[in-house]
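Troubleshooting: if your tokenizer reports a length mismatch, compare your output against this known-good record of 307 residues.
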Amino acid sequence: MMSDQAQKLRKKVNQNKLSAVIDDIKNIHDISEVYSNLVEESQSSASVIMFISAKGGTGKTYIASMFAHYLSEKKKKTAINITIDDAGSGNFAGGMIIAAYAEEITSYTSSVIQPDEYNDTTIEMQKKVFDAVDMLLSTYSDYDIESVFLCQSNLFDITTYQLIDRGYVVIRGRVEGELQNIIEDDFIKHLQSFGMPEYLKFYLKMIERDKNLGYRLLNNFCINFVKVDMPNRLKFCKSHNKLYEDLQKTAIDIEKTENKFMKKPKLCCECGRYVYDNILYKFTTVGFNSVFYGHCSCIDKITSVQK
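Known-good structure output:
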């Protein structure tokens, strides 16, 4: 028979909806889970938690010390949710950006898989992506990561399994919002590091209006930019595709010609702007039935191009 004092204590605990804690005391495997249950059941913001039992030897002291340690560690860390995306995997030129964004602390960090790394066949691509993600997550070690939202691309499949094995809550889906805007701008800067023009930022506006069209036009510009000076620019491109193999074997014919496109001006393959000059350079990709154009002033600056 339970004593009057014990009955009163039990009644108080039941009234506060914390009775489940007493039942859990003997079989605690995860302090954080018990704490979460406690907070959810009590719906309380109280700053004091009491462990009460009329019986001795139930583990009150042990549990209290474990909770104290857990709360001490938890208090030091801000809870964040991290979104991870990639940019550049579908573009012929450049490598790939893997980036992480935590909205709660407005934090963006990225890792670049350079073209030479991208083209290294000794390491599987998904492994490269996981290594980049692992590095990014390590920069948030001072925070409590509640979840990781990964891009739905199959590039992140191995990363998903690895993070789940490590105890992360992983969500897959289409990435939208602030991270998309930042990582796209980051990729443009990455392309500019290979000498591509400032005007490349124009394509960000197009991507914002129509993502598929914008990326397709950006890719077309990059391809023509590389063709102008293939001996020096092909090394900045992804090599595991038919286009790369074909370009290695093709020739580019170049000639100066009258500009007959004033009403519908052509884009310069070097600077990206419209050509309104009376004379321009015409490039023909032999065997590709592909023609593109450039300012004479832009092309003449490239000493390696055979005019």
